[in-house]
C-alpha cells in the first residue's frame, strides 16, 4: 500500500464538535435541546475517557434503534410517583436514560443538600451509558454519588452453575470528590466485562483475555465472535467460584434488587427466563435505576471529610510502585487523565466509527464532525 492510499486507523475530533454533532443527532430525533446536550455529554464521555464500549459506538447499535423502534420517548417527562423528602420514586416513561439518569442524580443532589442524603429510585428508564458519568455529577457539588442500573428484562449472564441467562451486566458506580486529585470514580459492570467490550474486540479482530468467556462445558473461550453466536457466555466478575465469581454474581444481584425491586422496574429472572434456549434474551426496556447522593458536610459531625479524603486518596497515589515503575492510581484517575489529554488533542475514534458517524450525519442531515488535522 502506498503512502497516499494508506488510511489512518484513528481519527481525532475536537471534543466540542463531537458533543455538538451528537446533540444535533438527538435533537433531530425529537429531544429538546438542553436535554439532547445532556445526553450527548453522557454518550461522548465514553470516548472522552477511553471507555469506548459505552461511547459513540453505541449510537448506531443501541440508541438510534431505540428511537426507530419507539422504545424511547424523546420528550417524556419524569413523573414523581412518591415523594418522602429524602427519597423520591420516579417513572421515567421511557425517556432516554443518558439524560434521565443525570436528571435523577441532580434531584438526588438537591435532596441531599436538604436532608444529608437524597435517594432517587427510577422505573421505566432506558439505557444510561457509562454509570460513572452520572455518579460524578454529585462530585461537582462536593457530594458522594452512587448509581446502580439493571438492564430491565434483558438476560445476558447466567447464575454460577446455571444453564440459562438470568441477569444483565448490571453496572455500579460510586464517585467521591478528592481535593487536589481526580475524583474517585469506581465505574464497572458486575460481569467481568460489559458485552460492549466483547463486541469491540470482535470488531477489531482481537482475541479476548482468558477469563471473560466460557463455553457450554465451562472451558475458556478467547474468540469474541462466539459470544454473539451463542457459543460463549460472559462470566461474572471474579470468573470462577475459586476466584470470587459469587462476589461478582452477588454484586449483580445487589444491583438488581436496588434498581429494579425498589423502583418496580422490570427484572431479568421472571418465569419466561426458564423457557430460554441458553442464549441471551429479553429486552433492555423498563430499566430500573438507584441513585444516591450523600452530603459529607451535613452528615459528618465536626467536618473534615474533604481533608481526610485528601489524605486517603493522596497517600494511596503516593504508594511506592513495584519494579515496573507504573505509578499507583485509584479508579477514576486513568479516565480523568485521558479526558484531559483528549480535550486538548481531540478525541480519538477508530476510522470505522468515524465513517459510521459520517453516515449518520448524511442520513440525518446533520453536519459531520470535522477530523482534527
Ligand atoms: N448501562 C449499562 O447497562 C452498562 C452495563 C455494563 C457496563 N456499563 C458501563 O461500561 C463501562 C465499562 O465498564 P467496565 O467494567 O469495562 O470498566 P473497566 O474495567 O474499564 O473499569 C472498571 C474500574 O476500574 C478502574 N480502573 C481500570 N484500570 C485502572 C487502572 N489502571 N488504574 C486505576 N483504576 C483503574 C476504572 O477507573 C473503573 O472505575 C462503565 O462505564 C460502565 O458503567 C454500562
Automatic annotation (TrEMBL):
KW Oxidoreductase (keyword) present: yes
An example molecular function term from Gene Ontology annotations: oxidoreductase activity
Family recorded in the similarity comment: Belongs to the LDH2/MDH2 oxidoreductase family.
The protein's name in its UniProt record: Lactate dehydrogenase
Keywords: Oxidoreductase
Entry annotated with the keyword Protein transport: no
Amino acid at each position: 500500500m502506498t503512502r497516499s492510499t494508506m488510511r489512518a486507523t484513528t481519527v481525532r475530533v475536537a471534543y466540542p464538535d463531537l458533543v455538538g454533532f451528537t446533540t444535533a443527532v438527538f435533537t433531530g430525533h425529537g429531544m429538546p435541546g438542553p436535554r439532547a446536550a445532556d445526553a450527548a455529554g453522557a454518550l461522548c464521555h465514553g470516548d472522552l475517557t477511553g471507555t469506548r464500549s459505552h461511547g459513540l459506538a453505541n449510537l448506531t447499535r443501541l440508541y438510534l434503534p431505540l428511537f426507530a423502534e419507539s422504545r424511547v420517548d424523546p420528550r417524556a417527562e419524569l413523573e414523581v410517583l412518591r415523594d418522602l423528602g429524602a427519597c423520591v420514586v420516579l417513572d421515567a416513561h421511557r425517556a432516554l436514560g443518558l439524560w434521565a439518569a443525570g436528571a435523577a442524580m441532580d434531584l438526588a443532589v438537591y435532596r441531599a443538600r436538604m436532608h444529608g442524603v437524597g435517594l432517587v429510585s427510577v422505573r421505566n428508564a432506558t439505557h444510561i451509558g457509562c454509570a460513572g458519568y452520572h455518579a460524578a455529577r454529585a462530585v461537582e457539588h462536593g457530594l458522594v454519588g452512587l448509581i446502580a442500573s439493571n438492564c430491565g428484562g434483558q438476560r445476558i449472564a447466567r447464575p454460577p452453575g446455571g444453564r440459562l441467562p438470568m441477569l444483565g451486566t448490571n453496572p455500579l458506580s460510586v464517585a467521591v470528590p478528592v481535593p487536589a486529585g481526580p475524583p474517585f470514580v469506581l465505574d464497572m459492570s458486575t460481569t467481568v466485562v460489559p458485552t460492549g467490550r466483547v463486541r469491540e474486540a470482535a470488531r477489531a479482530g482481537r482475541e479476548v483475555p482468558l477469563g471473560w468467556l466460557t463455553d457450554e462445558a465451562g472451558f475458556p473461550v478467547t474468540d469474541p465472535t462466539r459470544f454473539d453466536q451463542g457459543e460463549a457466555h460472559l462470566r461474572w466478575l471474579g470468573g470462577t467460584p475459586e476466584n470470587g465469581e459469587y462476589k461478582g454474581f452477588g454484586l449483580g444481584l445487589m444491583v438488581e434488587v436496588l434498581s429494579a425491586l425498589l423502583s418496580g422496574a422490570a427484572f431479568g429472572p421472571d418465569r419466561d427466563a426458564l423457557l430460554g434456549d441458553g442464549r441471551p434474551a429479553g429486552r433492555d426496556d423498563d430499566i430500573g435505576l438507584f441513585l444516591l447522593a450523600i452530603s459529607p458536610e451535613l452528615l459528618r459531625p465536626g467536618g473534615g471529610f474533604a481533608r481526610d479524603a485528601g489524605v486517603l486518596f493522596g497517600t494511596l497515589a503516593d504508594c511506592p510502585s513495584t519494579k515496573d515503575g507504573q505509578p499507583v492510581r485509584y479508579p477514576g484517575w486513568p479516565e480523568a487523565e485521558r479526558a484531559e489529554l483528549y480535550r486538548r488533542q481531540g478525541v480519538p475514534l477508530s476510522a470505522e466509527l468515524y465513517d459510521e458517524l459520517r453516515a449518520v450525519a448524511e442520513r440525518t442531515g446533520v453536519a459531520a464532525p470535522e477530523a482534527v488535522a
